[in-house]
Amino acid sequence: MSRRDDSLVLCYHAVSPTWPADLAISPQRLRAHLKYLVDHGYRGVTFGELVAGGPGRRVAITFDDGYRSVIELAQPILAELGLPGTLFVPTDWIGSERPMAWPGIEHWLGGEHQRELIPMGWDEVRRLRDAGWEIGSHTRSHPKLSQIRSERMRAELAESKATCEAELGSCTTIAYPYGDHSDAVAAAAGAAGYAAAATLPAGAPTPKPLAWPRIGIYVHDDMRSFRLKVSPRVRRARATSAWPVVAGGLRSLRRRFAR
Ligand SMILES: [Zn+2]
């Protein structure tokens, strides 16, 4: 692998100019992040393509949960920059027209931002697929897979895959809700027929096809924070004992600039 090669996987959720949730990012900020990568020679690929391997600087831009704002606000930005996206959908929620609700987002129910929680319908998901996006599973109901009984865990993996295949034709990738997984979960994902699975680790573990780390990008990630998070040098440091020093620097930068 040459020094010019890099494989980067980003994890976004919702896009909104007004929703002050951790997992929402403004369209302007999303566009600035992605343009920075394009300007630095990154080529967009889907998550499945990235895990399958290849040369050069590659980035997979993934979105979890299926918020309607992804097709309304993110897809036009990715299309303008010539980037494919990857969307991971919780199949019980898609097409329900009900606000999604699970620990981490359910406190937005009932307020002025509740409509941000409405998921896409399957026709919208198919439009993304037809625009070159990869659609993967995000389980059926969005549980922490390592913390439920193994029969239910296997059903969440297999039944969401079957639904995606019925609606979309194929489904070979998954993102574990909350990034939560274990060796048993990864083994079950492989047994269910997934070729690649995305996590959200705190550190930078060695990527494995069924436990592939992503970098989570959140509301406070301005350009300074984003450049640090995606920097190959910073990511290499995260994999070493130097990481606590770098992390301390990142935290103080964030305190200084995130206000
Ligand atoms: Zn999720």
CATH topology of the largest domain: TIM Barrel
Unique bound compounds: zinc ion
Assign the structural class, choosing from mainly alpha, mainly beta, alpha/beta, alpha+beta, or little secondary structure: alpha/beta
What is the terminal-to-terminal distance? 39 Å
- Quickly give the CATH architecture of the largest domain: Alpha-Beta Barrel
Strand content: 5-15%
The CATH class of the largest domain is identified as Alpha Beta
Indicate the overall shape. globular
Rg, alpha carbons: 17 Å
The CATH superfamily of the largest domain turns out to be Glycoside hydrolase/deacetylase
Q: Biggest sheet, in brief?
A: 6 strands, parallel
How many domain units?
Answer: 2
Helix-strand string: EEEHEHEHEHEHEHEEHHH
Amount of helix: 25-40%
Mean pLDDT equals: 93
Counted beta strands: 10
Low-confidence stretches: none
How many individual helices? Answer: 9
What does this protein structure show overall?
The chain has nine helices and ten strands. The protein is α/β, with parallel strands linked by helices and 259 residues long. It folds into two domains: 6-219, Glycoside hydrolase/deacetylase (TIM Barrel); 221-259. Strands 1, 4, 5, 6, 7 and 10 form a six-stranded parallel β-sheet that branches. A two-stranded parallel sheet has the order 2-3. A two-stranded parallel sheet has the order 8-9. Helix 1 (27-39) packs parallel to helix 3 (68-80). The longest helix has 19 residues, at 150-168. The protein is globular and about 40 Å long. The mean pLDDT is 93. Bound molecules: zinc ion (ZN). Residues 64-65, 138, 142, 177 line the site of zinc ion (ZN).
